[in-house]
Amino acid sequence: EHAAELKVKNRRKRYLDMHPHYFDDFTLELGNPKLHYFCIRRFQTATERETAGHGQVASEKMASSLWRAEIRKEGEEDMVQYTVFEQNVAKNNEAVTKEEAREWWVDEMTQRFLCGKDRAFDYKTVDENHKYDDPEEERDIQDAYFDSMESDFDSDGEGKEKVLTGETGIQDY
């Protein structure tokens, strides 16, 4: 069972590696709006915010707006400390760059994805798809299989080296 869970998580991780645009999906904001505001939105220019909202439907825009209004109301320093990122920043009282915040966002969303907590994502498309198996892992399995096989091309079948007689390796026509 543990091996199956590990295989699923490896497939999910490989999916994320192959689809880095997943982290730019506007629906992720609804999964953790406070973290999205803290890591992404507050660093965006007005143009970037407008561009990010183009793919949203009206209900998603409204939900996002409500969350952002609530966050502004609470104030950035009074936000609930429920992510590692927020806890570390609060503890160390250090300024965060846009790049650092983006790294934290990607890490948090990766952990969320690996655990299967993105309700908007159809995990079956990844979990049951051999396309996302690690090719190195497959190669290691094949290598182990062939290494375990005994080679008899150079032995006489009794473990001794085969002595070639009358064979020069040169073709005479």
From TrEMBL:
Top-level lineage group: Eukaryota
Stretches assigned to the CCD97-like C-terminal domain: 10-81, 91-148
InterPro entries associated with the record: CCD97-like_C (IPR040233), Ccdc97-like (IPR018613)
Residue ranges, annotated region (Disordered): 129-173
UniProt protein name: CCD97-like C-terminal domain-containing protein
Organism: Byssothecium circinans
Origin organism lineage: Eukaryota, Fungi, Dikarya, Ascomycota, Pezizomycotina
